[in-house]
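Dear colleagues,

I hope this message finds you well. In preparation for our joint manuscript, I am sending the Lipoprotein (Plantactinospora mayteni) sequence together with its predicted structure, so that both groups work from identical material. I would be grateful if you could confirm receipt.
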Amino acid sequence: MLTGCTDETGPEPPAPVVTAEEFEQRLTEHLSRAVSGALEPEAQATPPSHSRTVGCADLPEGGPTWGVRPRAELAVSAGEKAEKYLDDVEMWMLREGFAEHDKRWRVGTPADVREVTATHEDGTQLLMEMARDSGRFTVAVTGPCTWPPDRPGGPPASGRLPPLAPPSGPTQTRNEDSADPCRSPKLYVYNLTSRPFAGRGPHLMALVGYPDEREMEYAEVLLPREWEPRYEPGTSDRDLDQVQLFVCVRVTATKDSRKDVTCNYASEQAAPGGGRPFTFDLFESVYHVTVREARSGRMVSEFIVPGRQGAEDSCPYRMNYNRKLARGIDEAAFQKRLRPLAEARR
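The corresponding structure tokens are as follows:
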């Protein structure tokens, strides 16, 4: 009686076509682009650390047991702005070819961890992690199966990995209500077709004000009309291409003044639910002003103006039923600092 034999070994998995060293350079390029393209100097990134994992058989696409997966990782420290910069790096990665994007909170001990994953078209897998309230996050990129340097038989020829496309550059908002060009100037600019900040004045401006704290009301910060762009003929739209400077005004409430102010609202538009007097707790304030070229995001000037308006002059044009109110900006000091930028010859 003969016993039947079956060969269950199957075909050999395909050998990697890229060397580990070449893909490690690609991982370094992904990380360095993210650092330069998304982070400001206040966010400190460590140099990338590299490692390799042996064995590719468990990958969805398969691979030989002798193949290696290169990995690179860096950490970013940014204190209370860490989550903001994690969002910026995430946005940068999505613009630069990463897809299959997913993010979630992973419940754990001692802290919950925010997790972001994505995959690049070249096979790089992205993992970003940040423990809640930690002030830092990690960015790790892992390559596909590659040819190890000590494998006999000769590695594949270099140059099999296509180069990355040039960085896409910032996105324009063309929106005076958006603070994105202020909070993330490497990712966003006000208007790419604006006139450059050059030549004879007036150098026209657009302004956006935004708070540090959302649970507070703020008076409007306004520019003199002669410094704003003109309306397009026959329309109610301003000609944004005339804007040369974008003025970012970040409001910080400092301490309770121990004073109350009552603001009167007569219209439904200003006070939803019916116009009526409303009493606020008045807080002292500071206005952090950054002036950027509208077309490039380049910083032109930076200064601080105190909140010095009288109590009633600090009343917001529209209220949202927050009990706290920041004292209005010192308009004379604000305009004095902006006037040389608006009127001087460049």
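For the figure legend, we might mention the following. The mean pLDDT is 91. The two ends are 100 Å apart (CA to CA).

With kind regards,
E.M.
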